[in-house]
Amino acid sequence: MTRQASSAEKSGDTLKDRTLERLQKLILTGDLEPGAKLLETQVATQLDVSRATLREAMVQLSEIGLLAYIPFRGTFLRTLDPVDLDEIYSFRTGLEKMAFQFCWDKRDLISLADLQMRNNRLCDCISDNDPYGAIMAEMHLHSWCYELSGHTLLLQSWGRLKPNLQFYFAMHQKAHGRGGPLRESHDQYLQLAQGNSLDAMLNHLEDHMRQGLENTMRFLKERNVSQNA
Predict the structure, then answer these.
(1) What is the pLDDT of residues 147-191, one digit of tens each?
(2) Of the residues 77, 109, 134, which one is the last residue of a structural domain?
(3) Which of 1, 7, 99, 124 has its CA 20 to 30 A from that of 179?
(4) What secondary structure does DSSP assign to the chain, as a single string?
């Protein structure tokens, strides 16, 4: 392979990745509504890419569950119903509690400093009014316990859950009428994760996630009532 061909391939990969990120951003920040059909020509023009490049990104987002292809009808943004939300809540709660149980004795000054840095990044995104950045930073914050756990199957399960959780986070912020979580929303999470009581941490996870679920469920029901009125 020539140097020129190699550079072209690298450039193509960069364009594909950039298109994937921009399309994901449109979905997670609410510029594209849940359940809406993706009009390829319109979205390709909006992103200033070819339809072929857009389709590559759409295939990848379909594979991770943010888009759904329906034969003879087209590609649609996924939706979340109460059953989806309840399953995400219960699965995530169980996973994250298990991750903390495995990582608890592995915490040290370096890993705790990393946790603090991740939270600082989230706060920066909130201050900058960057909804997409806040979603990704919040995901990175919650990834900490899985990465530290050293448990391969846990980390793989977390990877499969992340696309659903990103969509859930986006809906959760809509339920609160804001572009990201409150700056102080993870203060207690951080304090307990850095503390001495695993039981207190596990109890907080139950409460923290249940409150988020209840608010999002309420928002979903109100939106469905409004749409059907």
Answers:
(1) 999 999 999 999 989 888 888 777 777 666 666 677 788 899 999
(2) 77
(3) 99
(4) --HHHHHHHHHHHHHHHHHHHHHHHHHHTTSS-TTPBP-HHHHHHHHT--HHHHHHHHHHHHHHTSEEEETTTEEEE----HHHHHHHHHHHHHHHHHHHHHHGGG--HHHHHHHHHHHHHHHHHHHTT-HHHHHHHHHHHHHHHHHHHT-HHHHHHHHHHHHHHHHHHHHHHHHTTSSS--TTTTHHHHHHHTSS-HHHHHHHHHHHHHHHHHHHHHHHHHHHHHHH-
User: Quick check: pTM over 0.90?
Assistant: no
Report pLDDT digits (tens) over 2-23.
Answer: 334 433 444 446 888 889 889 8
Q: How many folded domains does the chain comprise?
A: 2
